[in-house]
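Supplementary Data S3. Sequence and structure tokens for construct A.
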Amino acid sequence: MTDRMQMIIECAEEEAAKTDKQTVSILHLLIAFLKQDASFLAELSYWSSISIEELRCVDKNVQTFDYRQMSSSYFSIPVEKDVTIVFASAIGYMQKFNQIYLNEGHLLKALLRTDQVDKLLTDDDKFMMISLGATARDMITHLGNYSFPNIPSSFGIRRVYHTDRNKLVSFVYDHFSREWSLTIERAFVEGKDTIYVATDSQRNYVGFAAFDIFQNKKNYFGPMGVKLDLRGNGIGFGLLHHCLRDMKEIGYEYAILGGAGPIEFYEKACKAVIIPIF
């Protein structure tokens, strides 16, 4: 679970503790999202047509149709049955996208598909929240005064050779997507040398990253991917910084991180910030 997910859970518990039932509900989760004032989640409350106080009033008067206290490993206090259903759905989204951390985007997407939320938010609200909080976002990080960390040599990170082409294209296709594999293949055809790979002790690929290859966009980092079973070991962090170092040496003052899915990873890894879309 990401740190921001933990903050949302704790906030929902605080809201629930103020009520007679002292049981976390769907409404408390929604309020917790709207109370966040950091990063892109701060935009949710600003653009929403319903306020936190309005939701609290609804919470006081609502009669839950299927109220049932249950325990959850995510919470320190009881939750309603619908909350467990939402978390199961969120885990499904996490697995669908081959991710290993449950994040706020997974939870928000699951939350916005519940009947209770349908009665509280307009279609415009839900579209806005999905766009802001449950969709990959472009980010930016400044390179001018960036201090680069030391990357362990054990990750086997190197720039690609021309002979990597077929094997790397197949690796990206098998472990990530056809679209990314076509992007990598096109970069080889155009003779670009802005791709890095990470390899294991048998010199098998375990990850890759690139810059300036997606639709020929300059200052643009991505795509990047690490094998599912090896994520969380610092490989992506290393690949990212090899590319960012090259981008700085080229003379780029900043880097655009295109369609960043694990937003919190990039915030922590290279102090990237969200580019507003509204």
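Construct B, processed identically:
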Amino acid sequence: MSRARIRLATAAAAAALAIGTLPASAYAAAAPGAGVSARHHQSHLQEETIRQIPLQGAVNVRDIGGYRTWTGGKVRQGLVYRSDALSKLTDADVTTVSGLGLTKVVDFRIPMELQYDGADRLPPGLTPTSRPVSDLGLYGTLVGAIASGDPVTQEQMLGGGRAEAYMRDIYRTFVTSPENRAQFAATLREIADGSQGPILYHCTSGKDRTGWTSYVLLRALAVPEDTAERDYLASNTFRAAYDARLRAGLKQSGRMQNPDLLIPLQEVRQDYLDAATTRMEAEYGSFYGYLTQGLGLDLRTLAKLQNKMVR
């Protein structure tokens, strides 16, 4: 392999680090008590809101069930799971995932992410469904920024509010891109299908493409908007210590002098979500308009979703 290709591969691995694809166990010693602070933060949410699936190779795996709806129901548990990438699961993790009884895993990652991060490790007989949602070249941008090794270049690419603007643009495409809408719609139709067993969907960090899918699903199930927002923002709780350790590793290795440039890319933020919902209202007039016109979900499908997912 040429030196240039080695540098590119190294940068891609670092980009994978930056958006969280190494096992949590690798950083456990650096963040003692991280689970305690996560539990403490969860106490500020409704008691029934967060049901984490503890794994070593993924840190943002949750059952979306347990939320109360404004119609007086409760979202069923054990039917839909959201997560970050599953490519670094341990053998014990695979056993845990097997116990979820999954019949489908949907992977929102793009081919470049799969190439460098690796395919999901899943129980025997379970093959992921690739359903890529565009990141507007974010992964490639990260690879380029880290590969440069140049603080000035990295600042020019990610600093000065550019990383935040990048994230807002990505979120807007969740609404504006026909291809992205088709991927989200296909996933929601499968969830609504009464013959479909438990399903898990994920991207790389389990926070943006996965976070938007979860936000839309919960609101479609009549979960209050503020509760759906808290579920979205909870990714920061589960990822905080992990992502901080990743930034420290990049600085220690010399790849980034100022790894805090990555924070806007690693976090979820209310204004990112607002960028999508503002565009949604501009394009479709309302959340219901996005469901029916943008995603093409008819009333029968929405009713099936309610019947299956809410008790």
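DSSP finds 15 helices and six strands in the chain. Strands lie at 51-52, 62-63, 80-83, 104-107, 129-130, 199-202.
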